[in-house]
Design brief:
Blueprint lengths: L2 E5 L3 H13 L3 E5 L2 H10 L4 E5 L7 H10 L4 E6 L3 H9 L4 E5 L3 H16 L4 E4 L2 E4 L4 E4 L2 E2 L4 H11 L8 H8 L9 H15 L9 E4 L3 E4 L1
Parallel strand pairs: 1-2, 1-3, 3-4, 4-5
Antiparallel strand pairs: 6-7, 7-8, 8-9, 10-11
Helix pairs in contact: 2-3, 6-8
Amino acid sequence: MARILLVDDDAAIVNALKEYLIAEGFDILSVSGQEQAKKALAAERFDMLLVDISLTDGDGFGVCKAAKEKKLPVIFLTASGEESSVVKGLDMGADDYIAKPFRPRELLSRIRNVLRHYTGSDSVVALGNVLVDTDKGSVTKAGAEVTLSALEYRLLLVLLNNRGRLLSRARLLEDIWDIAGDFVNDNTLTVYIKRLREKIEDDPQNPVIIRTVRGLGYRVD
C-alpha cells in the first residue's frame, strides 16, 4: 500500500481526495501547511507527495524541496493561470502537475504512472500474446504492431490500470470521455470495445482479454 502525504489548505478538496484515494487502496496523511508537511516528511515514511503550490502557510516549493531530498516523487496541485509556478516546480524536480479543478480519476492515473516509474515496475504488460509498452505507448500482438486510435489506447490503459477489477460502463465513460476530441456516449463505448477486441483478441466473439460481466461491465484479469 503506497503512503501519500497530501498538502493542501482547502478542507473540501482534502476531504474528497482522502476519501477517494483511501477507497482506491492508498494510505493518506493530510496536512494544511508547509511547516506541518516538513515535520511529517522528517518524521515519517511516504511514497509520494501531493502538494498545492499555494498554501496559507508558505508555499509548496519548500515542501517539494524537502521531499526531493528524500527522493520522493512529487505531483503539484495547481490553480489555473499558474504557468510560471508550474515551470518552477518542474525545474525543482517535480514529476507531474494537475490543474484544479480536476477529476479524481485523472489524478489517480497520474499517481499510478509516477509511482510505476519510481518503483521500477516493468513498463511492458503482457496480456497473452499481446504486449502493451506503457512507456513507448505501443501495442503488439504476436510480434506485430497493433495500431490503436488515441481513444482505443486510452480505453485499454484504463482497463490495464484496473486489472482484476470490474469496471462499470459509467466508470469507463467517465475515464475516457473527450479523449482525442471525441464525444463518448454509451453507444460509442460499445463500438470502441468492439473495435479494441477486434484488434487484440484472437477470437473477438469469444474474448479472453476484455471480459464482459453481463449487466455489470468489463474486466481485464
